[in-house]
Amino acid sequence: QVQLLQSGAEVKKPGASVKVSCKASGYTFTSYGISWVRQAPGQGLEWMGWISAYNGNTKYAQKLQGRVTMTTDTSTSTAYMELRSLRSDDTAVYYCARAPHMTTVTPNFDYWGQGTLVTVSS
Amino acid sequence: QSVLTQPPSASGTPGQRVTISCSGSRSNIGSNYVYWYQQLPGAAPKLLIYRSNQRPSGVPDRFSGSRSGTSASLAISGLRSEDEADYYCAAWDDSLSVVVFGGGTKLTVL
Fold it and tell me: Which end of chain B has fewer CB atoms surrounding its CB within 10 Å, N or C?
């Protein structure tokens, strides 16, 4: 069965960086993409970006451009999302989600990780 | 302010049919498929409808989606208590080159 297992909760100070992992199992990792979606406390969903596990191509939300990097390690079927220069409004639950298209970004996320809470506080 | 507009809340009694709307523009709903997600309290979102009106396997046929012009809607018939959740619509926006979500609708089963 398809599973996306994310790394544990993080507490960071403003200005620091965080790297969240998402280990995939139960499917051919390189045949899909991975999107990252975050949800601030009590708020809605915000798409952060997408990476193709097939060729490493990325597409980031413009508001995060320059602060976010998404990568994959195909040898371990793991996707990573690094967010730098953290601010208090980056406090959120971060989700990875499988995207059925390996070369095209769509809002089609058929499996989700359990979420990783990142708290940014001084 | 979300690019896609949803009512913040909706409600219904068991057995009723409820509809949740999602309003957008020509650059998103008007030219791309709409997706719907259900988020139960404390859980990750779950894909409910893809390509505007298709149900993934395992999603009951009580859930249906439609799209017309720059709006879309999610209908839930035979409402059950376990349908109480937040519902989000999503689409690709050609102008912004991003995935956009609605602000979410909290469904209460009375």
Answer: N
Q: Report pLDDT digits (tens) over A64-78.
A: 999 999 999 999 999
Q: Give residue B61's identity as a one-letter amino acid code.
A: D
Using the predicted structure, report yes or no on whether residue A103 has a pLDDT greater than 90.
no
Number of A to B CB contacts under 8 A, please give it: 61
Query: In a 3-state reduction of DSSP, which class is residue A36?
Result: strand
Closest by Cα among B99, B29, B39 to A33:
B99
DSSP letter string, B9-60? EEEE-TT--EEEEEE--TTTTTTS-EEEEEE-TTS--EEEEBTTTBPPTTS-
Contact B34, B91 (CB under 8 A): yes
Half-sphere exposure of A3 (CA within 13 A, CB side): 6
Residues of A with CB under 8 A from a CB of B: 35, 37, 44-47, 50, 59, 61-62, 95, 97, 105-110, 112-115
B45: exposed, middle or buried (Cβ count in 10 Å: 0-12, 13-18, 19+): buried
Considering chain A, what percentage of its residues have pLDDT values greater than 90?
95
